[in-house]
Amino acid sequence: MNLLKKRRGVSGIISGVFLVAVAVMVFNVLAWQFFQYDAYRQIVLEQDQREWERFNERLAVLEIVAGVQYLNFTVRNYGSVSSHIVTLYFEFINGTKSVHTLNVWISPGTTKRIVNVGPKLTTTDKYDFMIATERGNTFRPSEGQYVSNEIRPGQGQAMPFIFGFGYSDFQYSLSGPPYNWLPAWRPQAGSQPYFRIFLNNTYSQGVIVLAPDTRMAFVLDDFQSSNKRMSYLISSTTVPANSGLYLYFTQLDKSFGGAGSHYYVFVEIFYKFVDSSEIYGTTVGVLAVYTI
Amino acid sequence: MAIVMGGVMIAWAMGLIGSYQGGTQVQYMLMGEKMQEAIVIENVWFQTGTPKKITVFVRNVGVREAKLASLYVDGTSYTNASWPYTLPVGSAIVLQITDFNWAYGSSYLIVVATARGNQARGEWTP
Questions:
Q1: Element (H, E) at A106
Q2: Looking at CA atoms only, how far is residue A154 from chain B in angstroms?
Q3: Is pTM, for the whole model, over 0.90?
Q4: Nearest residue in chain A measured CA to CA from B39
Q5: Cα dihedral angle (A183, A184, A190, A193), rounded to 10 degrees?
Q6: Of B20, B28, B35, the CB nearest to A47
Q7: CA 20 to 30 Å from A208, out of A59, A72, A264, B23?
Q8: Which ipTM value was assigned to this complex?
Q9: A85, A71 in Cβ contact below 8 A?
Q10: What are phi and psi of B61, to 5 degrees?
Q11: Is A24 an interface residue toward B (CB < 8 Å)?
């Protein structure tokens, strides 16, 4: 009661109360703003985590099986996060496109086979496809190259060079440049054509195939050496690592015999690595032709 | 008198702070929602035929529903009356542009934008 009766000092108390009230208000505002910002930072961190996962999702499409009725391939997850493959985009070489739903989970470091998906295939089909994950990443076997469903018996040869035995991998042309290439399995009787052969280099470095020692010998199946015909590599050719290209050969030195002549075709290849002078020699599978 | 004026001042300050907090909260909410939304253009098909078409596959890879507001090809909008499209989390949508006379070998910048201002963009060549 004495305090209330004394007028002196009351204003100090009142202003002190207001000061404390203002201080509390300022503190509340700062604390509130801190919590709001903290909540927002949490969202940003979660988004960063999702982005990190998206950038670290790595899949490889491997071992696409040829000669099947539906797509059959392997996926390897070499990234650091699990992947959920949800879509298959498929395109035939003629431009026909389709999209298919997938539901495949694949853990980091594991391999999974995906079979019997996509549209029905024939053995002559060539196509491209792409798989998409739930994170929006897409993966395809190779950029800009179509996959063939054609069975190639040469696949899997443990050889420095692989001849794929594709129908158009061995061709002849009756005329010189400009060439008019046709499959060479049954060349024209009596003709004296040019040849080319598609060769795959399985080395992980480039090789130079050497002319004119690289050559084709067409040996009539009576095995008389006088019935041999030769075609030589026109010029030394560099075949890049793990890829293939056509090697062009000179015009046959002697015309083919009449219709129905059967020939064994031996392809001798002499080569060296691009960074070495050591010369190696090999052959690819022995081919056979008959004239018509 | 001083008490009354102080009370009025505190009430005014609280109103001011409340208004500030409300605005800031809305801003943080919008920024958070925008951050949680993410879309990607998964694939683009350039289709021949008459007329030529472009088909764009868009997927929502965020954790919030996205509302697709615009589609641009080389800066030209191809949004029509059926827009906007709502895209639930994890799902994909197919957007088609009909009657687009694309050419082989030319590159086209395709941009899909959401109502929150996020974009997915990429250059595609038929």
A1: strand A97-106
A2: 33
A3: no
A4: A136
A5: 90
A6: B35
A7: A264
A8: 0.85
A9: no
A10: -105, 15
A11: no
Q: In 10 A of CB A197, how many CB atoms?
A: 24
**CATH number of this structure's domain B37-124, picked from the four choices 2.60.40.10, 3.30.70.1290, 3.10.150.10, 3.40.640.10:** 2.60.40.10
Cβ of residue B17 closer than 8 Å to a chain A Cβ: yes
Q: Is B59 on the interface with A (CB under 8 A)?
A: yes
How many Å apart are CA A85 and CA A79, to the nearest integer? 14
Domain ranges of chain B: 1-36, 37-124
**Inter-chain residue contact B61 with A47, CB threshold 8 Å:** no
Best CA proximity match to B110, nearest among B60, B70, B69, B62: B70
What is the number of CB-based contacts under 8 A between chain A and chain B? 76
Tens digit of pLDDT at every position of chain B (126 positions) = 777 887 888 888 888 888 888 898 899 999 999 999 999 999 999 998 888 999 999 999 999 999 999 999 999 999 888 889 999 999 999 999 987 889 998 999 999 999 999 999 999 998
